[in-house]
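Q: Given only this backbone (253 positions), what sequence would you predict?
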């Protein structure tokens, strides 16, 4: 949104931010919406998954301000191992809590683990089929319904490489950091730089040489802050540069 309002490329701005954190620039991108997710899983014939909790959630909102709440999204999936179609798989992926506030015992931590497990289950389902034609059909769904700079030829190559893999080759990780970081009563994530660099170089780095913290532009917090205002000297940037906007750039709540 910031890039668009300044007449800049939204994609390039996003790549800038990914590069700042990882130390390398992504070659390509794919933006998919929820309907692509649904269609791709239906094309696979669904996905077998052990749903961890009962999920009953109804989302309605008066977006057009006419005094009538319209359907937005509902999730009604019961706990247990089952074959999910695309719509129910999306519900499981998006689920956060039930209408009565119950749900995961560990909140978003459990939610994230469920999302990771579901992605791996979808990959396993695709690998079990070992059907190149099926994967090309899914690639065409993405091409037709998503925003990407990949060609169908690119996706055919990726599909072929994917079929050489096993589920043990797939790693899904969460960026290490302090997810309870608070600055001026606002919630932030303070990246654990050393752990993150290990993760980048173990799993993500496409370059020949290791990526170092000084190759990145990561703002991090040295120690938890006490009080309302950010503590001078408690924030640093991995490449030794200035904090963009200074400490005053943290929002006040």
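A: Predicted residues:
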């Amino acid at each position: 949104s910031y890039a668009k309002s300044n007449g800049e490329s939204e994609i390039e701005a996003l790549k800038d931010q990914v590069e700042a954190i990882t130390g390398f620039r992504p070659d390509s991108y794919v933006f998919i919406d929820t309907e692509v997710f649904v269609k791709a899983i239906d094309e696979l014939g669904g996905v077998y998954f052990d749903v961890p909790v009962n999920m009953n959630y109804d989302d309605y909102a008066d977006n057009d301000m006419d005094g009538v709440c319209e359907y937005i999204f509902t999730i009604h999936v019961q706990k247990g191992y089952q074959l999910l179609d695309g719509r129910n798989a999306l519900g499981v992926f998006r689920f956060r809590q039930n209408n009565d506030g119950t749900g995961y015992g560990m909140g978003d931590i459990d939610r994230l683990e469920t999302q990771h497990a579901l992605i791996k289950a979808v990959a396993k389902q695709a690998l079990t089929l070992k059907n190149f034609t099926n994967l090309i059909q899914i690639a065409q769904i993405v091409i037709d319904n998503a925003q990407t700079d990949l060609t169908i030829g690119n996706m055919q190559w990726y599909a072929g490489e994917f079929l050489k893999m096993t589920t043990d080759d797939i790693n899904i990780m969460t960026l290490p950091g302090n997810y309870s970081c608070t600055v001026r009563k606002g919630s932030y994530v303070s990246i654990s730089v050393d752990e993150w660099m290990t993760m980048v170089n173990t799993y993500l780095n496409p370059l020949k040489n290791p990526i170092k913290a000084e190759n990145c532009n990561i703002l991090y917090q040295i120690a938890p802050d006490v009080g309302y205002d950010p503590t001078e000297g408690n924030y640093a940037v991995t490449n030794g540069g200035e904090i963009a906007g200074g400490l005053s750039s943290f929002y006040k709540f």
